[in-house]
Amino acid sequence: MTRTDATLHHVGIFGRRTCGKTTLAVQLCAGSFAQEKRYSLVLDPKAHQHTWGNHALIFTDRAKWLAAWQRPECKNCNIVWEETATTLKRDAALLDVFTMKAGEHGHRLIITGHGFSSLTPTMRDQLTEVFLFRQHENEAKEWGMHFADARVSEACTLDFEKHEFLFVRMGRAPVRKFLTR
User: Fold this and answer.
1) Which of 41, 69, 107, 125 has the fewest CB atoms within 10 Å, i.e. the most exposed one?
2) Does residue 120 form part of some domain?
3) pTM of whole model > 0.85?
């Protein structure tokens, strides 16, 4: 999936371990660079395990990552927040990253996490679209209520082994897709 969509703004990628979240984030960033020349600043605690590409600047330290992309000269980048369970921890002090700071610089925020509860309600409200890999039934229902679309609850039936995911954008029908590696 090297295609990018210039209308993507605040993106969430959610699923269980080894489902393909990081692979999808890497592909979105590569497509974004190829089509829009948009660089990526990535917070990834497992950076040694992933290949983000030459268009990405990788950080393992949250404070250094936050400082880098908030510099006035840093504009129109993909701001990737990998593994929110360990790097964000639902920290309410970071709500402004979701609500205004990323957008002020023309950045696209891309976050990965395990599920619905990885974020606070205010953080979830800022996501304009999500990519949902197989979810627990309760989490899939929560996403369905969040997007006001019962079809989103189908995320609990996706094929984990085939890296199937659901692309969900507010006001549009969810679309089933498969991650290509």
Assistant:
1) 125
2) yes
3) yes
DSSP per-residue codes, 92-142: GGGHHIIIIIHHHTT-EEEEEESSGGGS-HHHHHT-SEEEEES--HHHHHH
Q: Is residue 94 part of a domain?
A: yes
Residue 154: how many other CB atoms lie within 10 Å: 17
Cα distance between residue 43 and residue 81, in whole Å: 5
CA atoms within 13 A on the CB side of 74: 19
Phi, psi of 157 (to 5 degrees): -110, 5
Provide the residue range defining the domain that includes 166: 10-178
**Could you tell me the CATH number of the domain that includes residue 123?**
3.40.50.300
62 SS3 class: helix
In a domain, 5, yes or no: no
Q: Is 2 within a domain?
A: no
Contact present, 160 and 132 (Cβ < 8 Å): no
In sequence order, what are the residues at sequence separation of 6 or more whose Cβ sits closer than 8 angstroms to the Cβ of residue 105? 69, 70, 74, 75, 76, 77
Lookup result for tokens 């619905």: 116
The SS3 assignment for 8 reads coil
Q: Which residues pair with 176 in a beta bridge?
A: 166
How many independent structural domains does the chain possess? 1
Q: What are the tens digits of pLDDT across the range 21-73?
A: 999 999 999 999 999 999 999 999 998 899 999 999 999 999 999 999 999 99
